[in-house]
Amino acid sequence: MNNSQPPGSVRAIWIVGRLALRRQINRWLTYRFGRRTQPFGAKRSGTRTKSGRGSLFGAVLFLLMVVSGVVVTSAGIVRISQITQHIRQPRDKFVVTPYTYASLNQVDKALRQLKGLKDPRQRKRLQAMWERDVEGLLAGEVRWGAYTDAEQSVRIRQMEEIFRYQGVSGFAPAQTDAFHVSAATLPRAPAARAVFIGILSLLFVLWIPLSVSLALGFNNKDLSQVEWSLEWLYIFPVPARALFLSRLLVYSIFDQMVWWLLLPFSLFAFIAAGYGWAAMPLGVAATIYLALLAGSISTVAEVILRKYLSLHRLKNAQALFTVLGTLCLLIFYAAMFSTPIVDLLARIAGSNPVLLACNPIALALGSGSAGLPSWRWLGLILALTGGVLAAMLLATAASEWVTADGLVRAGGPYQGSRQGGEGRIYDGWLRGIAGRELLLLRRDRNLLVQVLIVPLLIPAYYLFVDPHLRWVLTGNFRRAAMVSFLVGAYSFVSSAIPLLTRENKTLWFLYSLPRSLISILIDKTLFWAAFGVLYGAIVLTLLFHFSPNLHVTSWISLLLVFYGIALYAFIASGIGILAADVFETEPRTQLKVSLLYLYFALTGMYAAIFYSISLWTTMAQLVLSTLLAFALWQKVRDSAPYLLDPTQWPPRIISLADGLVAALAFFVAQPLFQALFQAATTLPVTVQITASYLMAGLSVGAAVLIVLWIQNVPDLWRQLGLMIADKRRTVRAAMRGVLWGGLAALGALAYLQILDRFPQWHVWKQDAEFTSFLTPGAQPLWVWLLLVVAAPVIEEFLFRGLIFNGLRRTTGPIPAIIGSAALFALVHPPISVIAVFGLGIAAAISLEQSGLLLAPILAHAVYNSCMLLLNRL
Amino acid sequence: MSGLDNRVLVEIHGLTKTYGSFEAVKQLDLTVASAQIFALLGPNGAGKTTTIRILMGILAPTSGWARIAGLDCFKDRVEVKRRVGYLPDEPVFYDYLRGSEIIRFAGEMHGLSAPEIKRRARPLVEQLEFADALDEFAANYSRGMKKKLALTCAMLHDPVLLILDEPTSGLDPFATRVLHGILRDKAAQGRTIFFSTHLLDQAERLCTQLAIMARGSLVANGTLAELRGRVSHDSSLEEIFFSLAGNSESAD
């Protein structure tokens, strides 16, 4: 018999709260910093060395997310203030983004300088060039605005007119000053001020359903699990009251969402109300007040739901909360940027003065800098504390009352009703993996809602809230295409991204089947890809159905929608699989939120494809996305056999991902070095470019080699093509390189000849000549050094040594040749894309044939020399 | 070297698995002939489950190799699994799927047709007596029920080798007796059973060959009679176990 006394209520709350905090801290500590190493003296108990893949990158993304959340909140409150004061942009001028305005300003200046030029031909040429520039700028500006196709072209024409006659003075930059909340945010006029305060108070109230839905819906897998965590706490010799109270705290002030969603809003609201530094304690107090209120409701609701619903009903209830929470979150943020919603909230605030009068936060906000008499402050504080304490007591008492005859109704796992089935084996029409996924989708309402309903909420919401937008959406094909793509891609957030984590502990089952895991994963991804494509098609059909004047203006866009959705299914599942931590038991931490952020950024990049003006950027986006998907799946394929092994990594082989990362690093490093040279030296531009190119190339190349060497890539030099077994073949490789380089140069010459024949393509040529930084005759030695030595060596190492070889490892020669050449062509100016694509193919063929990197380097050098000699790069 | 002796089904050679600096399995050498009931004994943490998971290709060996029917357990894992049925220590099943649906899924993944799955599953389900639970969601099963379901899935494709991790833990005495009967029948039909346990009397009654592991190493291997010979002739398996595994425990 244990003689020690069980802890009292207060101590129990403290212990449970500390446990929650500890879990939170442990979760943050799983972000590892530095190189993957064997754990220091790993003991049996913690053989999780592969987990915690969050790394520094994840931490940075998380920080970014928090910062952008804060910025959005701040900008949103400013916007509400503007809307309530009816601040509008100037009407007599075209309002454009600050970027466009600055660019137009620059062009305006350049055009005025042109007038001083003597040579009329050159003047005309340059003028035409600048005008095309303006055309592009305005087209880009209008494309993002809310206009139909017809409106767009009218508007562009109007803007061009204005620019021709008035120059930049016909335009105004969009207002973006007053970006930060300050005391000046509070509207001066008393009426507007009352509305502003009313809206903020309503948003505070909105936090309560939002927080409750977040706590009960979404990812609260614990609630509907057979082993509910509160059941475990229930076995300890602690009063139930204390347990409920601790639960309440875990759902309120121990919840991180409170601190990075509610607190910024609360602080900014009090700053905007004119409290200055006093906003800090007030904001924190309001946050705690609301969090505790919401936590009380969550606790009671959780206990009641768990007690009276069977496990599967509970999951369906959670699905409902997911929808509710998403709606609240949407209103919370959309309120800050949508005029109709602000108007609606203003009306609610105006018609329910009692709601505001009884809301302590509204009272505190409304009193503002004018200050309340101290006795009213005291009253307010008393009301706040009293209200919170009452809510908490009520919540614990209610929970206790509900659970007076036991925490749950049925014991253990037998919460469903057992039927006397006759043991038949189910027959369905879809077999295997697809059949199982479909069955899960049908049964799991939470999954169903997240896959089917949530992606629709955002566009549907805008459709019904903003009538003008609806008209725009249905009057503009590009926008409709983009929305269908985004809906399809968004559905993968709950279907393809958690592809592996949904398996979680059942993964052993897949491993015991006579199929490779990778083929099962591909099947699953294909299923969801088909599902997403179908879903996107339905959305697009609906958009067409409701808008008689919507026409397919570009079949390519249509194709891009479906290709994009299918491709992003693979990107989503690739990201999800690589980031999955199958040893993690808590569902919420199995996938890092930062990855969703990454995925959204990628989908946003692809969505821009529907607005891109040039074929070139479209191609660039397509090639990059496709290669990215490929690189991800190459990694998946490598790691699939090792997923359940807690310590073993797949053998390190050069992969496409290495090449993509190295190429990215190079193209980031090169301008950085150049900026450095520009700032620190007075060298001629050509020398600067050559030197920065060399520096960037050498440092990235060295870094790649060192990393691969440290990671013990077997047979590294041969894999890269830096060495071959048979030394005698070196000469033949060199000859091959020269031959293929010559062929590529001939091809390029033919291409330029063809361009010359068609006057309508001269535009391209002029562009190319202008954008080329290499003014002929300047520092010829450096130009030669750059183009014949540095560029071939560095680019061939990146594009052939890493990217081609990385691709070649898992594909046949033809896809590898085309893929590497396409990426290679993309990093060159648009004019030379086709010629450089030819060079890329020639160089890749020479490497494929010889196995030595020397061959493509020579091919590249020969090609560049030919172009230089003909002075037409 | 495999394939020379057709009777050798499971071959483990120099198998080592380390987790960080912890050696879960050290230099394990083991062969199991076909049509045997082989028991792998050992105290908790002896490396039994690690060995079994390596056999299933779930873990990659740090060094050494394991082969089943001449196929490497990690490299040829897909081929291996066509011949093997597996029961984990604690089977976990998909949420929202009924027992019957999981059986069908397992059968389909082994390439069986729907009528074939029904034909094969029915006797197993009836023998193990869980037909009444088939229409329920498997995630809600009790532990023993989950084992019965996993066992049905493992035997559906009539594998030449059954790898069972603690097969009877969580089973009631009736089901245990039924399972023992099934395993004996399988062995009589020429199938091989490789199971881990720490129930000594179960091993004593059932197995034809056994090995004892302690702290990742093999401390004894052979038939029960051979092991008896090493200790004393009329000793029970319990005495053998304590004298062999116990020595190794205290030696470290």
Question: Notable features of this structure?
Answer:
heterodimer, A: 873 residues, mainly alpha, 4 domains, two-stranded parallel sheet, 2 strands, globular, B: 252 residues, alpha/beta, Rossmann fold, 6-stranded mixed beta sheet, 10 strands, disordered N terminus
Blueprint (SSEs and pairs):
The complex is a heterodimer of chains A (873) and B (252).
Chain A: H1 9-29, H2 55-84, E1 94-96, H3 98-114, H4 120-144, H5 149-166, E2 171-173, H6 190-216, H7 229-233, H8 240-251, H9 256-272, H10 279-308, H11 311-334, H12 339-351, H13 353-357, H14 360-367, H15 374-402, H16 432-443, H17 445-465, H18 467-475, H19 477-491, H20 507-511, H21 517-545, H22 555-579, H23 587-590, H24 593-607, H25 615-639, H26 656-680, H27 685-710, H28 716-720, H29 729-757, H30 762-771, H31 780-810, H32 813-826, H33 833-850, H34 854-869
Parallel strand pairs in A: 1-2
Helix pairs in contact in A: 1-8, 2-6, 2-9, 2-24, 3-4, 4-5, 6-9, 6-10, 6-11, 6-12, 6-14, 8-10, 8-15, 9-10, 10-15, 11-17, 17-18, 17-19, 18-19, 19-21, 19-22, 19-24, 21-22, 22-24, 22-25, 25-32, 26-27, 26-31, 27-31, 29-33, 29-34, 31-32, 31-34, 32-33, 33-34
Chain B: E1 8-19, E2 22-33, E3 37-41, H1 48-55, E4 63-68, E5 71-72, H2 77-83, E6 84-87, H3 99-109, H4 114-128, H5 143-155, E7 161-165, H6 173-188, E8 192-197, H7 200-206, E9 209-214, E10 217-222, H8 224-230, H9 237-251
Parallel strand pairs in B: 3-8, 3-9, 6-7, 7-8
Antiparallel strand pairs in B: 1-2, 1-4, 4-5, 9-10
Helix pairs in contact in B: 3-4, 3-5, 4-5
Commentary on this structure:
The complex is a heterodimer of chains A (873) and B (252). With 873 residues, chain A is mainly alpha-helical. Helices cover 70% and strands 1% of the residues of chain A. Chain A folds into four domains: 94-173; 184-402, no CATH class; 432-642, no CATH class; 656-869, no CATH class. Chain A has helices spanning 9-29, 55-84, 98-114, 120-144, 149-166, 190-216, 229-233, 240-251, 256-272, 279-308, 311-334, 339-351, 353-357, 360-367, 374-402, 432-443, 445-465, 467-475, 477-491, 507-511, 517-545, 555-579, 587-590, 593-607, 615-639, 656-680, 685-710, 716-720, 729-757, 762-771, 780-810, 813-826, 833-850, 854-869; strands at residues 94-96, 171-173. Chain A has a two-stranded parallel ribbon. The radius of gyration of chain A is 32 Å and the shape is globular. Residues 32-49, 411-423 and 766-773 of chain A have low confidence and may be disordered. Chain B has 252 residues and is of the alpha/beta class. Chain B has a single domain, classed as Rossmann fold (3-Layer(aba) Sandwich), CATH 3.40.50.300. Chain B has nine helices and ten strands. In chain B, β7, α6 and β8 (192-197) form a beta-alpha-beta unit. In chain B, α3 crosses α4, α3 (99-109) runs parallel beside α5 (143-155) and α4 crosses α5. The radius of gyration of chain B is 18 Å and the shape is globular. Chain B starts with 7 loop residues before the first strand and ends with a helix. Mean pLDDT of chain B is 85; it is low at 1-5. The interface between A and B is large, with 52 and 62 residues.
